[in-house]
Amino acid sequence: MKVTTNFRWAIQGQVATGPRPGFAGRLVRQVSRPEVDAWIQLAKKGYGVRSIICLLRKRQLQLYAALPELLDYYRLHELQVEHVPVRSGQKPVLSKNERKQVWKAFKNLKPPVLIHCSAGKTRSRAAAAYIKKKLSAKQGPTKTRSA
Q: From 44, 63, 77, 124, which residue has the greatest number of CB atoms within 10 Å?
């Protein structure tokens, strides 16, 4: 089964973002086990992903009725998983509490980490940007100014 997805590195080799398994644009449908298997294979073999931060809410997780439970299914495939449910379309994209949860999740996982929401755009990219910001702040300034 061919899987087309838009995984992209937010931080090369450490944090990638992408759509959920079986995402098909506006078409919302049940996702088959072979689709999820192909997605996992691409994430692990194509990107070296070892961990996942899933931003899907309960309603979106119900699209995986063919599986025991999506997050557990990831674990069965030897992926570490953290779940931070984030509502789509909210402003700001991630609340202060959700940003804290994403950072805590990231610190608990082995990289490379794949962050996914539904389309892999707004929520995932906001989470990745927050992680990048936190990592940059942790490293401190790389250049110093001379007076």
A: 124
Show Cβ contacts of residue 82 under 8 Å, excluding neighbours closer than 6 positions: 51, 52, 53, 54, 105, 106, 108, 109
The answer to whether residue 53 is domain-embedded is yes
Which amino acid, 98? E
Query: Does pTM top 0.85 for this prediction?
Result: yes
In a domain, 1, yes or no: no
Tell how many helices (H) and how many strands (E) occur in the chain.
6, 5
Length of the chain: 147
* 4-58 pLDDT per residue, tens: 578 999 999 999 999 999 998 878 899 999 999 999 999 999 999 999 999 999 9
Q: End-to-end CA distance of the chain, in Å?
A: 60
**Apex CA 135: angle with CA 54 and CA 6, to 5°?**
40
Domain count, the chain: 1
